[in-house]
Write a structure and sequence with these properties.
Elements lengths: L1 H13 L11 H8 L8 E5 L5 H8 L3 E6 L2 H14 L4 E4 L14 E6 L8 H14 E12 L12 H7 L4 E8 L10 E8 L1
Parallel strand pairs: 1-2, 1-4, 2-3, 4-5
Antiparallel strand pairs: 5-7, 6-7
Length: 196
């Protein structure tokens, strides 16, 4: 993770952050504002970047904890949050070691806007273990990522991998291709899972 942290830190310093500034996924906006919206609760934003999804949730009365492993991303997120006039608890943490952090447990909603799809196989195993450990029965997980092998950069994943990795203790509610990607050959997939 140290090399990944260094690489992302350099990209933030250079201003090369193509993952920043995308529209919010419709799975999130429907869950928060749709006809069958859920009541605000406790949310965790994994790999929050500059905080767009966290700020959106905080504006809708969610109690948000947001984490990233890059200080530059967290600094920008805090500045954007202050400008938005909302409160988000930001912390530097490693998703593969959540149980060692101050992130807490019992989240109603967990967001991943592009963290899992860039992890190695052992890191993905740790991710599922750690995310499962901070969830409660009924927790929703919104998981965004590129399809496996469709582009340079993050490794990506596909629905069979998501189903396999989350087979114990999670149920897949939906799997759709989003319109969030600016690259037509690299669609972003959105999976919504529920902790059982």
């Amino acid at each position: 993770m140290d090399l990944q942290r260094l690489a992302f830190g350099v990209m933030y310093r250079l201003g090369f952050t193509p993952w920043d500034g995308h529209r919010l996924p419709s799975a999130l906006t429907e869950m928060v504002e749709g006809e069958q919206a859920v009541s605000p609760g406790k949310a965790l934003d994994i790999g929050c970047g500059t905080g767009d999804m966290s700020i959106y949730l905080a504006k809708h009365k969610w109690d948000v904890t947001a984490m990233d492993f890059v200080d530059a991303a967290l600094d920008r997120a805090r500045a954007k949050t202050d400008s938005a006039g909302v409160k988000v608890h930001y912390l530097r943490a490693d998703v593969t070691k959540l149980s060692e952090s101050q992130v807490g447990t019992g989240f109603d909603l967990i967001l991943d806007g592009g963290c899992l799809h860039g992890l190695t196989d052992p890191q993905r195993q740790a991710y599922v273990r750690e995310v499962s450990g901070v969830a409660r029965t009924g927790t929703r997980l919104i998981l965004l990522g590129f399809a496996e092998g469709k582009r340079r950069g993050p490794t990506g994943f596909n629905q069979p991998e998501v189903e396999r990795r989350f087979a114990s203790g999670w149920r897949l509610l939906s799997a759709v291709v989003t319109d969030l990607s600016t690259e037509p050959d690299s669609p972003i997939h959105c999976y919504v899972l529920e902790r059982t």
